[in-house]
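Supplementary Note 3. Input sequence used for the single-chain structure prediction.
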Amino acid sequence: EQKRDFVHVQDVARAFRLALQQRQAKGHVINIGSGRAYAISEVARLLAEAMGTPNRSPELLGRARSGDIRNCFADISKARELLGFEPVRQLENSLGEFVSWVRNTSAVDRGADMKRELEERGLVS
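The predicted structure, written as discrete structure tokens, is reproduced below.
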């Protein structure tokens, strides 16, 4: 149930443009994100639905990668204040492009290899 912030690349590009245009942004470090925390299990569910396999469930191991941050999402209040930035694209409405790319790309599922390598290196607890 760890949480992450997923922001669309078009929103990131727009934020960069705004930062270049807004004088008051000069010298500031500004977080860019969606400002929303998505549980990884929710992302898996959304992706399964978008792929047309809503009954597919993620494999939950109940373990974490060593050193991994449990929850990580952006506080975009400074981006709102200094840039007038507001994310436009939401993850739940933007998966169609990703699904199209996946369907037109050949890929090899190496999930089992990844799991084995993490365990061999002691990177999961």
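The first strand starts at residue 3 and ends at 4. Residues 8 and 90 are 7 Å apart (CA to CA).
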